Here is the input.
Amino acid sequence: MCYAFDQIANAEEQTEKELRIALEDYLNLVFTAGDNRKGNDGYNTVRLSETAKIAESERVAGLERMEQRMECIFDRVDISVADIVLEHGEEDLYYAQVYEVTGILYHYEGSEELPDYAAFGVWHDLTLQKENEKWKVIYDAFDESTVTGVVSTEGAFSINGVQEKSQEGALEGNSFIQDVSEPERSSTFSYDYWIVNFLLEYAVQYCGIPANTRRSGYSEWVYGSNDGNVYSYNPIYGIVYNGSDCANFVSQCLHEGAGMPTNSVWYPDEYNGEWSGVCELTQYLEDTYDVDLVSVSTYYTNIFTGNPVYWTVMDGNSTNHIMICVGRNSQGIPVLCAHTQDIFRVPITNYSDKYLKTALITTTEYHTSHSNFTGYYYNSGYHYHVCRYCEYRSDMYLHVPDAQGNCIVCGAIGPFETTY
Here is the structure.
């Protein structure tokens, strides 16, 4: 009996290995420069149903529209499969939830700058079936609406426990309150260079894109399973389950990164609108700190690193999504991080078709140039690592580049200059 049980267990393990290979084969969409762009149709281990073929073609079309909105050229788009959760369904059906990171290397026509990098992460709900010794993708449901504008809902399902697996902690209401006093209008809070630097570090670390799926250089790409934190979310805050975690993330950046104090109105809780609701959060910033909520100007001249950026429907009254500015790319275009669909340094031009507004916590740009680092010498004598590309500065004793020696903000490979 033990032998028979081992056979069954081994068979299930082998099936899972085959299925994981097939999923990575399917999701590894290769989208390169040129006129004949298409998905990777040369699959070795998987076949697609007609429905899945349509979903894949929509992914390619969505990326092309994204490229047009950004007014740049995508040199390469690669996929990293960061996590796979499997469940055996009825008969020979298998269900899989896959967290997929799409990395984009892009440049601007006529520019001599190094290529820029952006990424976004999306969960796929897949239904598969073994057919003629190959796995067949029956359905692929995903939501890239806040990135590429593409949504595929046919065949969507939910695997029990997947959301719980993605977090070790949860929003626990008042347990995070540091100041239970009532907030006063025009309370004092402001940014400086170091506050913005810490905010950038927090936003990039917890934006949802696992660090080991980011590039290790301008032309080298990282693949492989993630390090245990599927989303790279901060686990003590958890996830807002209504499908909209964007305001929760921006609030975390303002509190954990920039040090904005919590109080009896603004505190971490899934049901606290001021913390986890976009309309309520922006209104709170306006009421409490006299933050101006203004329409984004032509050429994005009023977008500053550390400020939230959000969009509304075209009447300007209903807010849909909020992000945070984490710097500028090689052309000086503001780049953003966000949750819901996780994004890493996606240019604001990708949202040029939205009615964009920004919360002007600061009107000073503390990260202004992409040239080699030239100054900001600190009089205390500390040594600093400085990224020569995005000017992110890290205290070499506290905040160092990642394990591959890359900048944790923009992904640029070292060496880093040192100041004293």
In short: The chain has a mean pLDDT of 74. The longest strand covers residues 73-88. Residues 173-360 form a domain with the endopeptidase fold (from Nostoc punctiforme) fold (CATH 3.90.1720.10).
